[in-house]
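Posted in: Structural Biology > Protein-Ligand Complexes

Title: Requesting predicted complex, zinc ion in pocket

I'd be grateful if someone could produce the 3D structure tokens for the following input. Sequence and ligand are given below.
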Amino acid sequence: MITLKRDVLVLMMAYPGYVTGVDLIDHEAFLVMKSGTRILYDDRKKKSFDEKISDADIQDMLETCYPLTEIDALMGTNVDPGRTRVYALLDEIYGASKDAILKKLVTVEFGAERLPFNKEAGAARALTAIAAGAADLVADQPQTEDFLFPTSGTFNYRVIAGTDRLSPHAYGIAIDLKSGADGYWRWASPEAGEKLIKVYPKDLVRLFEKNGFIWGGKWNHFDIFHFEYRPEIIIKARYFPGSPDTAEPWYQGVNADSEPVSGYIIQIDQSLGS
Ligand SMILES: [Zn+2]
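-- Reply #1 --
Done. Output follows.
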């Protein structure tokens, strides 16, 4: 129950106005969306690693903690925080069809480039903030520019290579920075990936994370040029990085006195029982 409450709070903080609460129906918890759609929290299926990726529920999506610390090596076997996505949630927030998503794209100026990005849930706003931060970073550390430009794409309505699942690029919430041969686990060896992870600019990764993006370099199935707007993964990592301490309130870690968080906490306790 503690993890359920924390995960709901994380999602309400990450997607305010989109995730509006939680409901219990026959003892099963459902996330409630602005549209009224309910998304099952935990399907209680025993899943292999591959099944968690291909058929994730909300609980699976938030299960693996994303490290906000710097890494200098490849993540351990099958540690892919944020690579699990719940499509029902993405459909609700960013659009459930190509046409619906196209209507939500806006142009973000990124260096000298103009990139389409989804305007919902603060995604395009976050990329705009990163563009400003990247300009400062390049002024300070000119070699960073070689890792940024030319970028290799944001919105692209396509599936993930080797799967029939939509890529986060299809929702307009991911960006690939300047790409080379050694960035993607399907085409590059773990050794080549790790070598690139070691030299990839740490301040650039931090800039993205500060603005709600996760880095594909922190996946065992690495995708080093890939950054994806996933504020729920970053918020969970920031406030609830470890297992809950049952002696403390379930929301221990967040600032429970600040609005709107204090209101979310009361609402979650009312819906699920305290
Ligand atoms: Zn990508």
